[in-house]
Amino acid sequence: MKYVNASNILPEHLIAEIQKYVQGETLYIPKPETAYQKWGSCSGGRKLIDERNASIKRAFKSGRSIDQLAEEHFLSIETIKKIVYSRKKH
After folding, report:
1. Residue 31 CB partners (closer than 8 Å, separation 6+)
2. Which of 7, 11, 41, 55 is the most core-located residue (most Cβ within 10 A)?
3. How far is CA 63 from its chain centroid?
4. Distance between CA atoms of residues 62 and 46, nearest Å
5. d(CA 51, CA 90)
6. What total number of domains does the chain contain?
7. What are phi and psi of 31, to 5 degrees?
8. What is the pLDDT of residue 89?
9. DSSP states of 23-75 as a string?
10. 8 A C-beta contact, residue 80 and residue 52
11. Rounded to an integer, what distance in angstroms lies between the CA atom of residue 67 and that of residue 75?
12. What is d(CA 40, CA 33) in angstroms, rounded to the nearest whole number?
């Protein structure tokens, strides 16, 4: 995380207002919740997991056993059960 000197980017009246609450400290200002992104949305990791899960569901519906899928994908049996029995569209 990069730190920025508030006096370089904020108007003086706003700095004066903030100084009523905190002075000489590092202050973290979070993003608004609307700016949050889900895990993996930038790297593509989320997409890969969604595709893997869809593949596991298709294989299960085609007759592969939970044990087989766990071994093939190096996942626990419980994780495979969560994937194949979830109601989310994959």
Report:
1. none
2. 55
3. 32
4. 24
5. 7
6. 1
7. -70, 155
8. 58
9. SSS----PPPGGG---TTTTTSHHHHHHHHHHHHHHHHHTT--HHHHHHHHT-
10. no
11. 10
12. 17
Query: Domain for residue 24, yes or no?
Result: yes
Q: Is residue 47 part of a domain?
A: yes
Is 1 contained in some domain? no
Amino acid at position 86, single letter: S
> 3-class SS at 85?
helix
- The pLDDT profile of the chain, 90 residues, written as one tens digit per residue, is 788 899 999 999 999 999 999 999 988 888 898 888 888 888 889 999 999 999 999 999 999 999 999 999 999 999 999 999 998 654
pTM of the model: 0.59
Tell me the C-alpha distance between 87 and 66, whole Å: 17
